[in-house]
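Researcher: Please translate sequence to structure tokens.
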Amino acid sequence: MAEVLATMVVGPLVSMVKDKASSYLLDQYKVMEGMEEQHKLLKRKLPAILDVITDAEEQAAAKREGAKVWLEEVRKVAYQANDVLDEFKYEALRCKAKEVQYKALGMDVIKLFPSHDRIVFRYKMANKLHMILQEIDVLIAEMNAFRFKFKPGPPEPTNYLRQNNSDIIDPTNIVSRSRANEKKKVVRILLAQVGNENLTVHPIVGMGGLGKTTLAQLIYNDSEIQKHFELRLWVCVSDNFDVDSLADRIVKENGCKPDGSSALEKLQNAVSGKRFLLVLDDVWSRDEHNWERLKSYLQHGRKGSSLLTTTRDDKVAQLTGTTEAHNLNSLDEIYIKEIIETKAFSLRQVEQRPRELVDMVGELVKRCCGSPLAATALGSVLRTKTSKKEWDAVLNRSMICNEENVMAYKPSVCILIMF
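Model: Translation complete:
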């Protein structure tokens, strides 16, 4: 039974890697320059594996040993690919934050990092990417030999990985534990709206990387919330706030059946007479007209129905919120330390971690400014560095991420930047 349960995370893990491989940041900042063909191959081959994951899992559950072994190999390669893509994303975020800094200082962005560093980085990463693609080729050949077939998995929102990303990269639920009190606070607020005839809109506000989505996920999956709300819906909004297409995504991604009506009418019918919770994750739009139009179709739920939004923009929270916004604070250093150690030392037991490296973590914690994203990215990079000399090289580089810049660049992603 434990073996079967262990395979269940493979599909979501591969989906997360596929999403990371398609991140616009990788193209925008050209961190995979010279590796475009390999990048395309990776984006083509991951969906091929995803197509047969459900069949492989069913065969593993039926005690087919080959399927179990294959899934375990998929898991290992997916973790390797995830770490490599974290390094690419980390490099892209460095470039993004440098661009913000240079523009704030009125400087032209000519080069975002020295040419020598760029060449070394690309050479190292090209080798890693090549090895991963070779392993994926072996997996695809094996899946064809096993004759795994395409089978649609259970219906899941397309933003499933955004909701559950923290559980995959955070096996000890560090961020979940660190936000437990904030979760309880928001849950109390939502439950207290039970007699409110008007739709409640409760915003969660914070910089990119602080864990707004993770907190919203914790609230969404809370047992009291599940009992209280008859219907729970989730959609990642980002920069597309066209009301009709948003309504269409909400009903499709949450399994609402087609009935011939428009998307907004289907959404209205889905919530009508039910106490519902709708999470709108990563909201950017300040278009008041669109907000009012969407809310007009959501007003047909029972008393106590609520919207929970996450946003980086204080003005969005002010425009949409009907309750006082929950401002997400930086993560306590004790948790940042735990994230870095978990990522940097991977699966090593505590007693196997080199003491000279463990002693350096405290200084690295200060570089992260309380951002779990920064801690995760930094830990992923350090995982490949095994000597004190390599860790010293990271510590000795300049740093942009400090309290002053956190305030100045809000709501930009705050992540430590090494020159």
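Researcher: Any highlights?
Model: The chain has three domains: 2-153, 162-327, 333-408.
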